[in-house]
Design goal:
107 residues, mainly alpha
Length: 107
């Protein structure tokens, strides 16, 4: 698998199953929390805080973003990929999914 892992954005595509308002709300809340954590890290750097304390916060941001990513990955697999397989378009969609998993697991 020597294919380049960069996956182009496809704004013309939309999810097979739209996210519920509750699901969107939870994802947005989580991302807003991450945004606040990133601002906190910026402030810690401005204040010349201890490196280890900053690194702990960076790790927390990474974990929070991974959680968002895994949630979206599960949604994509259960919705878009499942739908594509049912419609006979599974090969291309599964290849795309595998690229996404590889790219995501590198981060």
């Amino acid at each position: 698998m020597d294919e380049k892992l960069t996956i182009p954005l496809t704004p013309e595509k939309s999810p097979a199953k739209m996210r519920s308002e509750e699901d969107k709300k939870l994802l947005i809340q989580r991302l807003k929390r991450v945004e606040g954590q990133v601002r906190g890290i910026q402030k810690m750097i401005e204040e010349d805080r201890y490196c280890v304390d900053i690194l702990v916060q960076v790790s927390a941001v990474n974990a929070a973003l991974k959680k968002v990513g895994y949630t979206l990955l599960e949604d994509h697999t259960r919705g878009c990929v499942t739908n594509a397989v049912k419609q006979g378009e599974g090969e291309e969609t599964i290849n795309e999914l595998m690229k996404v998993i590889q790219q995501f697991s590198k981060s």
